[in-house]
Amino acid sequence: MRDGFGPTISTPGHMGVDYETRVDFDRLRSYRFARAREALEASEFGALLLFDFYNIRYVSGTWVGGALGDKMTRYCLLTRDHDPIVWDFGSAVIHHQLFSTWLEPENSRAGMLGMRGAIAPEAGLFASAVEELVGILGDHGVLGQPIGIDIVELPFLFEMQAAGVEVRDAQQTMLDARQIKSTDEIMLLSQAAAMVDGVYQDIFEALKPGVRENEIVALANKRLYEMGSDQVEAINAISGERCNPHPHNFTDRIIRPGDQAFFDIIHSFNGYRTCYYRTLAVGSSTAPQRDAYTKAREWMDKAIDLVRPGVGTDVIAKAWPAATEFGFASEMAAFGLQFGHGLGLGLHERPIISHLNSLSHPVELKTGMVFALETYCPASDGFSAARIEEEVVVTDDGPAILTRFPAQELMVANKY
Description:
Elements (H helix, E strand, L loop, with lengths): L24 H17 L5 E4 L2 H8 L14 E5 L2 E7 L3 H8 L8 E3 L14 H15 L7 E3 L4 H9 L4 E3 L1 H8 L4 H24 L6 H15 L3 E9 L20 E10 L2 E2 L2 E7 L4 H19 L7 H5 L21 E4 L6 E5 L16 E9 L6 E11 L2 E4 L9 E3 L3
Parallel strand pairs: 1-5, 3-4, 5-6, 10-16
Antiparallel strand pairs: 1-2, 2-3, 7-8, 8-9, 8-10, 11-12, 11-13, 13-14, 14-15
């Protein structure tokens, strides 16, 4: 069992102050832009055209979330010799021209495509956008070179092809750029995790018979937004017989005495995300529940103890049981249970660690990577299960843990 958190990761206050060095957002934006520009320079692409809203934020330091964040209306062009140009939604353009002062005003432009098909291609918005882009690419002398795109609406792709532009996959390039986190990024990830530490204390105190899963979800949302979260992406609340198999959602189930319950809190602070499971017992615990928890913890600790620069993700994955060892027919069917995934502006970044992919295509761990490790163990009673997750930073001195709410043994909330 682990008896500490490894190297210390700074968790400063959320506000900027004059008496401590905290997150430097200018430095953060400069680091991210430099990483993206270096990735472009090392690539086969003449330019990057980005629709993935995490990539747009990474490159340009601009963000429109909520209902507009995933509608494929915003896009960003990065060339080798020019600052990023962002095409944005309506009045967000003027806002960015006023307040996103690291961008030249002419690099914030109005744009609209199809809103994931709601505007038909026949309206001509895709065609006019491609015509403008082809002109810019020609001005920069890269029109005959491959252009990297991360994600795309098919009508846009067809218009690019009709214009003679060769399109290739740039998501791999951007995910490679994003996988090494700066000091500022790690501080933001630590701050986001600290907020969840506090929410788990609230859940621990509220978890009593008669409370419904959705009430715990409401509690977590309220507290996170009160603490400054900019997006609560999802809260899983799973209890009792719903624990096995893992449904990955919440319901209005009433929590009962003796239930085992686990929760996953996924939110972001200044864009940087958490994925943070904890398992609790309600009032009391049984031997099968405790045994399952002990196994899940052992699998977790074995994986964490292997985290070092230079280690392959296949080595981490091998610390976990094969799918057939905990009741599943295949690794595909068990995917996401013994699991690791990068954390940053996106919930699932590099590296992805599992038996499904890591044994045949391992990734070398490097200093500055941040990822979550998740273990899951069904209980012998047939319906309970333990789920644990820790967020880990790869440092020169080994693993550092960002997730601090106690998880070394099964904790009993409101013990009888």
